[in-house]
Write a structure and sequence with these properties.
five-stranded mixed beta sheet; alpha+beta; Uridine Diphospho-n-acetylenolpyruvylglucosamine Reductase, domain 2; 20 strands; 34% helix; 484 residues; Ubiquitin-like (UB roll); single chain; binds flavin-adenine dinucleotide; binds FE2/S2 (inorganic) cluster; globular; Uridine Diphospho-n-acetylenolpyruvylglucosamine Reductase, domain 3
Length: 484
């Protein structure tokens, strides 16, 4: 198929003659003149541009996802339905229940953020995803308001979500229209010197990437989108990997979990939480719901960021990554994938296919701690992940991995060596804390100083002891140490 086809509300659209890296936000405001959707940060942080994308959920219904229109490319719309705040108008011209609740509870002042909040609430209303006020707060952590204050907005949200979720009576009609738009063939769109491919299966992806090894892979575009909106880069050949059905699968067995590279972070959260509750808590604080709705497990690994949240815990749990080039596959320990800053063990034309993590065993202790300036929607200053195997009071094995401490996500090899064979005591942890200083020369930047990062990393080790090892009754000094 050679054109991007989708539904705007209920109306079919075919896009031709636009750069393939046009954002959904620019399309809505500039081409459709639907200006209810606002631009604040243009980097996925503020939520002013939140829209909802609906698509078949595979069980005869529709899945509604809130996304940041400012960093999604128009190719992401193909075969899907785009809903902006204008589409919430009811047939009789009245407000949608979530909009009415914002009015009733005084949830808006200047109104700039309001369409974004309304669309986030609309996604919750459609999906029944929010059970209580805390979950509502988490749900709205990607929407910022400068003037109203969050109390009235949360009151509005709670009231709106009490009204029965409905399908607006349109699911069957929308599904039929979507089916008519997409014949299931690979999308191949050209504009000037730009090309956008979107294969549907892994073999086609392997072939097209091998044929265009210089192409940029796009998964959730929560990094790549910013190359265009913030760095103003002109991208030529892009391959959208997010539609490859085989790569979205998450396979769970008694002993391990395998995440397809394009499983969204939101889809992966339940399996990560089941690996260990600390991973569930980390995912709650990973960006925001709209980001997690599109961002992928593979994207968080492949971008090679030293401050990506998934690599340290996955390395500490001994994960492996499988890469594919054409018909060839190879599997390596995840830690070996990260060679140096901006350099990963990935050949031209080779893509990340999956990640496999073994479940911790009965003798294994694990913790993962994210330290950032804000609790919600913030990049980590330090991400600590600690895995120890303790048998009969002795530490028999250790994997300790950090983000934010070096140019890549890295293991603290010397601290690990200092722990293995030692008794599981506070004294052993103190020794590891001292040795940690020879493991890393931490990054020093506006997010955190090198000294702060080292102190925080050491305190994560101490916290691990107090939370996982200290005998019952021993005073927990975690807060005191963290402040120290
Ligand atoms: C507002 C905001 C908040 C964020 N908060 C966090 C946070 O809290 N923690 C965190 O770790 N990150 C955060 N990020 C960064 C980003 O969301 C994550 O790194 C995300 O997982 C990237 O996934 P993606 O699918 O969007 O990647 P994309 O942007 O699509 O791609 C990222 C990179 O990976 C490559 N790539 C993608 N898929 C593959 C594949 N299968 N094989 C090979 N290469 C591939 C792309 O070519 C590109 O180089 C945030 C980003 C934003 C905009
Ligand atoms: S404009 Fe701020 S998230 Fe899109
Ligand atoms: S109402 Fe003004 S920013 Fe929220």
């Amino acid at each position: 198929m050679n054109a991007i086809r989708f539904l705007l509300g209920d109306e079919p659209r075919t896009i031709t003659g636009l750069p393939v890296t046009t954002t959904v936000l620019d399309y809505l405001r500039g081409v459709e003149r639907l200006t209810g959707t606002k631009e604040g940060c243009a980097e996925g942080d503020c939520g002013a541009c939140t829209v909802v994308i609906a698509e078949p959920d595979g069980t005869g219904g529709l899945e509604h996802r809130s996304v940041n229109a400012c960093i999604q490319f128009i190719g992401a719309l193909h075969g899907r339905q785009l809903l902006s705040v204008e589409h919430l108008r009811q047939a009789d011209g009245s407000l949608h229940p979530v909009q009415q609740a914002m009015v009733d509870h005084h949830g808006s002042q200047c109104g700039f953020c309001t369409p974004g909040f309304v669309m986030s609430l609309y996604a919750a209303w459609r999906t029944d995803a929010v059970a209580n006020r805390q979950e509502l707060k988490d749900w709205l952590s990607g929407n910022l308001c400068r003037c109203t204050g969050y109390g009235p907005i949360l009151d509005a949200g709670e009231a709106a979500l009490k009204t029965p979720a409905g399908d607006d009576g349109d699911t069957a009609a929308v599904l039929a229209k979507l089916q008519a738009l997409d014949d299931g063939s690979m999308l191949d769109v050209a504009h000037g010197d730009q090309r956008w491919f979107a294969p549907h299966n892994a073999d086609d992806l392997a072939k097209i990437y091998a044929a265009h090894p210089d192409a940029i892979l796009v998964a959730g575009a929560t990094d790549v989108g910013l190359w265009v909106t913030k760095q103003h880069r002109h991208l030529t050949t892009l391959i959208d990997v997010s539609r490859v059905v085989q790569l979205t699968a998450i396979k769970e067995t008694a002993g391990a979990v395998t995440f397809g590279a394009t499983a969204s972070l939101r889809a992966a959260t339940a399996a990560l939480s089941a690996l260990h509750p600390d991973l569930g808590e980390m995912m709650r604080r990973f960006a925001s719901i709209p980001i997690r709705n599109t961002a992928t497990v593979g994207g968080n690994i492949a971008n090679g960021s030293p401050i990506g949240d998934l690599p340290p815990p996955l390395i500490a749990l001994g994960a492996t990554v499988t890469l594919r080039h054409g018909d060839e596959r190879r599997t390596l320990p995840l830690e070996d994938f990260f060679i140096a800053y901006g350099q990963q063990d990935r050949a031209p034309g080779e893509f990340v296919e999956s990640l496999t993590v073994e479940r911790p065993g009965a003798d294994d202790l694990f913790a993962c701690t994210k330290i950032s300036k804000r609790f919600d929607q913030d990049i980590s200053a330090v991400l600590a992940a600690i895995w120890l195997r303790v048998k009969a009071g002795q530490i028999t094995d250790a994997r300790i991995a950090f983000g934010g401490m070096a140019a890549t996500p890295s293991r603290a090899r010397r601290a690990e060596t200092a722990l293995i064979g030692q008794p599981w005591t506070a004294a052993s942890i103190e020794t590891a804390c001292s040795v940690l200083e020879s493991d890393f020369t931490p990054i020093d930047d506006m997010r955190a100083s090198a000294a702060y990062r080292m102190k925080a990393a050491q305190n994560c080790l101490r916290r691990f002891w107090y939370e996982r090892g200290a005998p019952a009754g021993e005073p927990t000094r975690v807060l005191e140490l963290a402040d120290g």
